[in-house]
Design goal:
Helix content: 10-25%
Radius of gyration: 14 Å
Mean pLDDT: 93
Structural class: alpha+beta
Number of strands: 7
Low-confidence stretches: none
Order of helices and strands: EEEEHEEEH
Number of helices: 2
């Protein structure tokens, strides 16, 4: 079974949190709302991976003013790749509290939409299991 270390930012701006809607045809949670983030590449340091993933998925204009390691979790998920291949992956999530100075988002093709959401409205989104677990642990759900 493949193992992936995933860096995952919980990004807050003016009391709202960033959610991204996964593409319908790929990823671990197709079509569901999630936190951004992705895998640490060989030879890459954790914070470097976090900043790279944010640039790749959310665009270079999103400016983070704070990055603080918060918690971790793990589970086994089935991932779908763009070519339709599906595999079980042991996922280790490293989750960071982040604050952004702006809301300048440019999504890549991994996501189809995004929203800045107040804590009271998070329950209204079709959150994937990992995001639901993270937000519950944080006391936001």
């Amino acid at each position: 079974m493949q193992r992936r270390v995933i860096v995952c930012p919980l990004i807050e701006n003016q009391g709202q949190y960033l959610l991204c809607k996964m593409a319908d045809d790929r990823g671990v949670f197709p079509g569901q709302w999630a936190l951004s983030g992705g895998g640490v590449e060989p030879g890459e340091r954790i914070e470097e991976a976090l900043r790279r993933e944010i640039r790749e998925e959310l665009g270079p204009q999103l400016a983070l003013t704070r990055i603080t390691p918060w918690t971790f979790s793990d589970d086994i998920r089935t991932k779908t790749w763009p070519d339709g291949t599906r595999k079980e992956v042991y996922m280790i999530y490293l989750i960071f509290d982040c604050t952004s100075a702006n809301r300048d988002i440019v999504l890549n093709d991994e996501f189809q939409d995004y929203a800045w959401v107040s804590p009271g409205d998070l329950k209204n989104y079709d959150l994937n299991a990992a995001t639901r677990q993270t937000l519950t642990l944080k006391g936001l759900l």
